């Protein structure tokens, strides 16, 4: 209830386009007294909002903190489901772990877990994901599509398109996708996507999409072993990005492409994905669980499977692998 009141307050002030909103008007919108308005304004200030108050004019927000709280993300968020229910942490071991628990508890589709920091962030193949405090986006989104489990891997590619587009929309940087789950800028990784499935034999119960994005880290923030392979939006663009704005754009894009996929199938997503791909036509090394294959990446199938042509012109279908550019 408290967060809902503050969310309404931030939204009311945010929609004023920098103009003052009177205390009386805010009280009417929120359905509370002007004394209560003042109390909530003070709470926002304690949370890092800079709110200007002028006698006989009212209040206006001068700046807001760079947090990924529900208040910041939902302010102006234009989605129907995704991000309408947000669980925000200051520090958590893994947003994926919490999301799995929420799935078992019946959390609705679109529920999102997000944290300012992860202490045990996870990537693909049980790798750790470096997730320092207040510098990136560490979040997990619950989807519940009415589909067979075989369709689940396509959601990694759907998400990759939404993330790449969000980065370009917010920062102007040119993001590229390396199959299946990495977003690169200038050849270095800025985002990873982890898609996990909760299913029965014939139907999906839930898909949990984990997104880890390096946003405002400096070079010094990365461990030595990551400095040559990882990057951040700050490093590449030379200016900080507001993380909540990036989250909003990701949610808007993901909801849009999810709906497109459910109505028109994977083909339009495939075309979008290939437009961002860094691998198509390039020589790559694919390391699967059973073998290592070198060849030319031809693109993806209508199911999202990577097609790789080796030196003998044999075409391999790669369902899961680590991809290295030659």
TrEMBL record:
Acts both as a biotin--[acetyl-CoA-carboxylase] ligase and a repressor. Its EC number is 6.3.4.15. This is Bifunctional ligase/repressor BirA. Keywords: ATP-binding, Biotin, DNA-binding, Ligase, Nucleotide-binding, Repressor, Transcription, Transcription regulation. Residues 71-262 form the BPL/LPL catalytic domain. The gene is birA. GO terms for biological process: protein lipoylation; regulation of DNA-templated transcription. Belongs to the biotin--protein ligase family. Residues 23-42 bind DNA. GO terms for molecular function: ATP binding; biotin--[biotin carboxyl-carrier protein] ligase activity; DNA binding; transferase activity.
């Amino acid at each position: 209830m408290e967060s809902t009141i503050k969310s309404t307050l931030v939204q009311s002030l945010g929609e004023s386009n920098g103009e003052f909103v009177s205390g009386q008007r805010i009280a009417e919108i929120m359905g509370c007294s002007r004394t209560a308005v003042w109390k909530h304004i003070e709470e926002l200030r304690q949370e890092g909002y800079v709110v200007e108050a002028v006698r006989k004019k009212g209040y206006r927000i001068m700046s807001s903190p760079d947090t990924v709280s529900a208040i910041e993300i939902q302010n102006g968020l234009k989605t129907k489901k995704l991000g309408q229910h947000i669980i925000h942490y200051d520090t958590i071991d893994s947003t994926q772990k919490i999301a799995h628990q929420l799935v078992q508890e019946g959390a609705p589709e679109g529920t999102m877990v997000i944290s300012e920091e992860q202490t045990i962030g996870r990537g693909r193949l049980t790798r750790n994901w470096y997730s320092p405090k207040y510098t990136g986006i560490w979040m997990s989104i619950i989807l519940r599509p009415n589909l067979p489990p075989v369709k689940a891997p396509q959601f990694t590619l759907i998400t990759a398109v939404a993330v790449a587009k969000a980065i370009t929309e917010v920062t102007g940087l040119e993001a590229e996708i390396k199959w299946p789950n990495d977003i690169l800028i200038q050849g270095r990784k800025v985002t990873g996507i982890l898609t996990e499935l909760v299913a029965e034999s014939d139907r999906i119960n839930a898909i949990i999409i984990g997104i880890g994005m390096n946003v405002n880290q400096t070079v010094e923030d990365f461990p030595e072993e990551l400095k040559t392979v990882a990057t951040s939006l700050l490093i590449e663009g030379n200016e900080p990005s507001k993380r909540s704005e990036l989250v909003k754009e990701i949610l808007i894009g993901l909801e849009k492409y999810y709906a497109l996929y459910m109505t028109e199938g994977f083909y339009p997503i495939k075309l979008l994905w290939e437009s961002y791909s860094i691998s198509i036509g390039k020589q790559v090394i694919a390391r699967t669980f059973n073998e290592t294959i070198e060849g030319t990446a031809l693109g993806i199938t209508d199911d999202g499977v990577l097609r790789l042509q080796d030196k003998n012109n044999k075409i391999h279908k790669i369902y899961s692998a680590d991809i290295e550019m030659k």
